[in-house]
Amino acid sequence: MGAGMIDWRHWLAAAALLAGLSEVRAALPLEAFAGLPAVDEVTLSPDGERYAALMNVGKETVLITRELMGSPPVKALLKTDNREFRFQWIRWVNNERLVMSVMYPSQRGWVEVAETRLLSIKRDGTGVNNLVRYSHFDDHRERAQFQDRVVDWLPEDGHHLLLQLTDTGESTPGVYRVDVDTGRRVPVQSGRSNVYEWITDLSHRVRVGIRQRDAQVEVLVCNPDGSNWRTAWSFGLFDREAVWPMGFGTDPNSLYVHADHEGRQGIFAVDLADPRLPRKLLLANERMDVGGSLMRAPGTHEVIGARVGLHGDATVGIWDEATKQLLSSIDQALPQRRNHLLELSEDGKRYLLYSSGNGVPGQYYVGLKDEGTLSLLVEEYPALSGLDLPRKRSLTIGARDGTRLPVLLTLPSGNPSPKGLPTVLLPHGGPVAMDSNDFDPLVQFLADRGYAVLQVNFRGSAGFGHAHMSAGLRRWGLEMQDDLTDAVKWLTESGVADPARVCIVGASYGGYAALMGGAKTPELYRCVVSFAGVSDLIDLGAHEAQFVNGRGVYAEQVGSLWSDRDRLKATSPSRLAGQFKAPVLLLHGTLDRSVPFEQSETMADALKSAGKRFRFVRQEGGDHHLSGQLQRTEFYREVEAFLGEHLAAPAAAAAPASR
Q1: In Å, how far are 239, 315, 475, 513, 533 from 559, measured between CA atoms?
Q2: Distance (Å, rounded) from C-alpha 341 to C-alpha 641?
Q3: Half-sphere exposure of residue 168, counting CA atoms within 13 Å on the CB side?
Q4: Exposed, middle or buried, 523 (CB in 10 Å: 0-12/13-18/19+)?
Q5: b/e map of 487-516 (b: 16 or more CB within 10 Å)?
Q6: I need a labelling partner for 407 at 20 to 30 A (CA). Which of 24, 97, 112, 392 fits?
Q7: pTM of the model
Q8: Shortest CA distance to 405 belongs to which of 339, 459, 482?
Q9: What does the alpha-carbon distance between residue 267 and residue 308 come to, in Å, rounded to a whole number?
Q10: CA 626, 628, 633, 635 torsion: positive or negative?
């Protein structure tokens, strides 16, 4: 296996120096990492006079507001105990009223689903309204499953929004103008066959519809007057030729899109008035895909750039000179971070910034443009504030077939010699997702407990170009898994990891990868941890087939339940339970609406039948994202104890896990 283009003698010497310079300190309390972020979804009012946020206090999440001037108290408006209803996001619609999304688990027929509702509330806590209302004539008809998909916030209006909604008796969503004070709605755009997403222009006219049949996508566009609906682009969901609309510019025929540029995603402007649909490249990166959302100037709503999230330079993606200068000064004030300009007040004088980085927990700042000041507002992890936390090292290694794999390595602080360390391999979920060098509380927790942490952007990961992503299609448990194996062998051969003390820990797809690692390369891992992991690809495919377009998308991404059935069986960990040697820790929330709880039950039954060592933690009321504080703390405690039991002692002394 190739080890990349790195001289490991020089790298190890540098790593030893850096680790030796880090202050040796006692382990931090588990709660410093396991707590939900102290605040989330911070948002600035249009006039810039106050902010709203979701504050996590113990087991509860509270919607709060606070004035920015002086030292006023925080005002609590609404709260949830997170047992059933969870707040998803919040947004101001005017200076007096907020809109918020609420999600809860439900069931339609025999299918377990997640549902959303949309509420509005005044900033003084009064006037709470459910914005999607039904008359008593509709009581016998099924309500829309998703009621929070806002298409257009109508910022000049302040009392209405455009909402995408599948109304009673309809099979696809239309667009409605909804009064945020009363919930009264009127239709704006009727639904079209298989169109599940709508986009408006800056005159608030519905101009784009995205149609999907299984894994095939069409982007429909129309003229500014609503005439001549036509197909602009047609492509497969995972095709390199995909073109995804982002939004319109001030010119009603100028549409911004994500599309391919030399194998990487870039941002283009397209002239819809020209039948040839010419593209003007605005932003691309030779190494990474460029994603993100459009950034607009206050007042005019002209597109001034895109929030692309490339580390270390907030001006990347900005083509407005004044905004570039602002973000350049922010980068100087907060260096070596990801600085995201979230919102500007309607007069453009005050702005909200989110800043985080490698070993730097997230913080929200409020800035005054004219004064040139930047003030810390709130922190996500205040218990970690100001600490010298370990940093991720970005490296590139070679897989057995020469594929280049971006990896991240985090070493525990205060270790004078990074050799022979107990190591955790932490594959990400998705799998069309990525690990970055941004702050991650779980990585920091593991490093704080003395473990080296290895993260691999295996083939199938997003962000590194179409070829890297598409190489993972229909390759679950095959080359995708081999990439993880090769990364572990690289780290042990370099001397950093103790080959007898490596554990694989993952969630969702990462949980599948952890279980598959325990079955496919049982000699490689001392222990295996799966949170909400997939264990049977046949059963998962049958589950996905119950949802709109689920069967077709699953066939493209994972495999066909019929033509690929033998491969899916051969790469299902629960069907390979007899091959496990390492003890297994399984955790799963009973209200998971992404990966069915039964996936972990199936794995536990298979391990029990095979006489293998395992522990199964059933998280009552838990979801797929550890959104509840009880479940999140339990996860951290279980992982800490399990790793401590199996990675601390020599291999011969490892005790069996309880069942």
Answers
A1: 16, 41, 8, 16, 18
A2: 40
A3: 12
A4: exposed
A5: bbbbbbebebbbbebbbbbbbbbbbbbbbb
A6: 24
A7: 0.92
A8: 459
A9: 10
A10: negative
Cα dist from 205 to 257, 332, 349, whole Å: 18, 41, 29
For the record, the structure tokens of 639 come out as 């992982």
Q: Pairing between strand 86-92 and 338-344?
A: unpaired
- Give me the phi and psi of 273, to 5 degrees please: -75, -20
User: Is pLDDT of 606 > 90?
Assistant: yes
- Spatial contact of 253 and 245, defined as CB atoms under 8 Å apart: no
Give the tens place of pLDDT for each residue, 172-231: 999 999 999 999 999 999 999 999 999 999 999 999 999 999 999 999 999 999 999 999
Amino acid at 98: L
- DSSP E strands in 254-317: the ranges are 254-261, 264-271, 279-283, 293-296, 303-307
CA angle 230, 275, 243 (to 5 degrees): 65
Distance in angstroms (rounded) separating the CA atoms of residues 628 and 135? 34
Question: Is the sign of the CA dihedral 630, 636, 640, 646 positive or negative?
Answer: positive
Range list of β-strands (E), 214-349: 216-221, 230-236, 243-248, 254-261, 264-271, 279-283, 293-296, 303-307, 338-344
